[in-house]
């Protein structure tokens, strides 16, 4: 799922690896946020930069597709999002509370899913399974199995403009190299990161939260996926996510 930063193209592939997906696929060390299901924040084996098949979900229609492989049993989010505007959430973690603002106006399906999962305690008791410290700078979370293969049992549509960038503080979805393959895995960018515009940006983490993630990242990763790519040496565990 996650590839390592070997070069610019490798980094792009890693992004795909860090992205999260609903089904469980194998994760390859890459420089992008893809999941083992293919979801990664770094560029994955997908075609980096090719956003032609991507686009925002139709207004009022969130096509959540069940894949029959949930890491935790949860209900599907409503197809018609009940979220709107900016939504404040707090991720209670072992490195402190991370405050984030979700953008339901631009990404209603993604935010609708995230809020639904949070309210069903899907993220409670989970561990952020991947940290990258070379090429791209992201912490990837949202997999109850902490393997990079876990998801909620459904996939969500991409919501992309094709102009996405990933500065520090970005909160975005991990995915496989394929369109509309996000699930529950997400990544937090703690330092400006070059990624292709293939990962749905659905919110921002405040400065204090970014600092906390960066401090944890300073302790490095275990390199299990390659140099500067693996489980964080300083564990980041999510106790729960509170909406509002």
Automatic annotation (TrEMBL):
<dbReference type="InterPro" id="IPR029000">
    <property type="entry name" value="Cyclophilin-like_dom_sf"/>
</dbReference>
<dbReference type="Pfam" id="PF00160">
    <property type="entry name" value="Pro_isomerase"/>
</dbReference>
<comment type="function">
    <text>PPIases accelerate the folding of proteins. It catalyzes the cis-trans isomerization of proline imidic peptide bonds in oligopeptides.</text>
</comment>
<keyword id="KW-0413">Isomerase</keyword>
<dbReference type="InterPro" id="IPR002130">
    <property type="entry name" value="Cyclophilin-type_PPIase_dom"/>
</dbReference>
<feature type="region of interest" description="Disordered">
    <location>
        <begin position="219"/>
        <end position="244"/>
    </location>
</feature>
<dbReference type="GO" id="GO:0003755">
    <property type="term" value="F:peptidyl-prolyl cis-trans isomerase activity"/>
</dbReference>
<feature type="compositionally biased region" description="Polar residues">
    <location>
        <begin position="24"/>
        <end position="43"/>
    </location>
</feature>
<keyword id="KW-0732">Signal</keyword>
<protein>
    <submittedName>
        <fullName>Peptidyl-prolyl cis-trans isomerase B (Cyclophilin B)</fullName>
        <ecNumber>5.2.1.8</ecNumber>
    </submittedName>
</protein>
<feature type="domain" description="PPIase cyclophilin-type">
    <location>
        <begin position="93"/>
        <end position="243"/>
    </location>
</feature>
<dbReference type="InterPro" id="IPR044666">
    <property type="entry name" value="Cyclophilin_A-like"/>
</dbReference>
<feature type="signal peptide">
    <location>
        <begin position="1"/>
        <end position="19"/>
    </location>
</feature>
<feature type="region of interest" description="Disordered">
    <location>
        <begin position="22"/>
        <end position="81"/>
    </location>
</feature>
């Amino acid at each position: 799922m996650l590839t390592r930063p070997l070069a610019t193209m490798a980094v792009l592939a890693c992004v795909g690896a860090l992205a999260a997906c609903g089904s469980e696929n194998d994760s390859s060390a890459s420089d992008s946020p893809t999941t083992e299901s293919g979801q990664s924040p770094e560029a994955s084996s997908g075609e980096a930069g090719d956003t032609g098949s991507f686009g925002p979900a139709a207004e009022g229609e969130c096509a959540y597709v069940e894949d029959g492989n949930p890491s935790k049993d949860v209900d599907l989010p409503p197809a018609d999002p009940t979220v709107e505007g900016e939504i404040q959430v707090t991720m209670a973690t072992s490195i402190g509370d991370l405050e984030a603002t979700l953008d339901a106006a631009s990404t209603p399906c993604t935010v609708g899913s995230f809020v639904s999962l949070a309210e069903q305690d899907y993220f409670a008791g989970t561990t952020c399974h991947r940290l990258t410290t070379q090429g791209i700078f992201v912490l990837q979370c949202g997999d109850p199995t902490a393997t990079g293969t876990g998801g909620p049992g459904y996939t969500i549509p991409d919501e992309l403009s094709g102009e996405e960038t990933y500065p520090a503080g970005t909160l975005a979805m991990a995915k496989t190299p394929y369109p509309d393959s996000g699930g529950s895995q997400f990544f937090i960018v703690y330092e400006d990161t070059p990624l292709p515009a293939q990962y749905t940006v659905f919110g921002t983490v405040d400065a204090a939260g970014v600092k906390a993630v960066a401090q944890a990242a300073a302790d490095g990763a275990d390199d299990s996926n390659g140099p500067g790519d693996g489980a964080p040496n300083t564990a980041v565990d999510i106790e729960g996510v509170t909406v509002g």
